[in-house]
Design brief:
Number of helices: 4
Number of domains: 1
CATH architecture: 2-Layer Sandwich
Shape: globular
InterPro entries: DUF2505
Pfam families: DUF2505
Strand content: 35-45%
Protein name: DUF2505 domain-containing protein
Order of helices and strands: EHHEEHEEEEH
Number of strands: 7
CATH class: Alpha Beta
């Protein structure tokens, strides 16, 4: 592994919102109370949600902190007792966003897209990202861990979202 040759782990998740329109899902995603509810559901005790209109879309920044007790010991040495995760979305329309997730001060990030598509009487949200952890030897393990954490976060967002849209 000369120079710690870096590959990104590709991760793709599909979330389904039956009976919803793109406009309804986008409106939900643009609501700070919804973003707060997702953080609360995931037990992020400290967070700041910032959402601003931008052209035909919006920018979203969710700066969240959580205890690192769920993180395996090999990774806890890197992140400490608390993990700060910053999720930034740049929506160019109500159906397309660039996604960037970082753990400030730590090597690695996630870059990708979010796409909302109306199909079969509902909306499918596709999140496709490349996970990169620039850490020699254990980078691949960390990328897998981060990818799994993203999946867990997206499943939580989807559950809160389905309940939100139903109410």
């Amino acid at each position: 592994m000369a120079g710690g040759c870096l590959m990104a782990k590709k991760v793709r998740y599909e979330l389904r919102y039956d009976g919803a329109t793109i406009e309804q899902v986008y409106t939900m995603l643009s609501n700070p109370d919804f973003r707060d509810a997702v953080c609360e559901f995931q037990r992020f005790p400290r967070r700041t949600v910032t959402i601003n209109p931008a052209g035909a879309g919006m920018t979203v920044k969710v700066d969240q902190y959580r205890p690192a007790h769920e993180v395996p010991s090999f990774a806890r040495k890197l992140v400490g007792d608390e993990i700060n995760i910053v999720q930034e979305e740049a929506w160019s329309s109500n159906s397309q966003a660039e996604l960037h997730v970082t753990i400030p001060g730590k090597p690695g990030d996630m870059l990708g897209t979010v796409t909302l598509t109306e199909v079969d009487g509902g909306v499918t949200e596709v999140v496709a990202v490349d996970v990169k952890a620039s850490i020699p030897l254990i980078g691949g393990k960390i990328e897998g861990l981060i990818g799994d954490m993203l999946g867990k976060a997206l499943r939580a967002e989807n559950k809160v979202g389905r309940d939100w849209l139903a109410s």
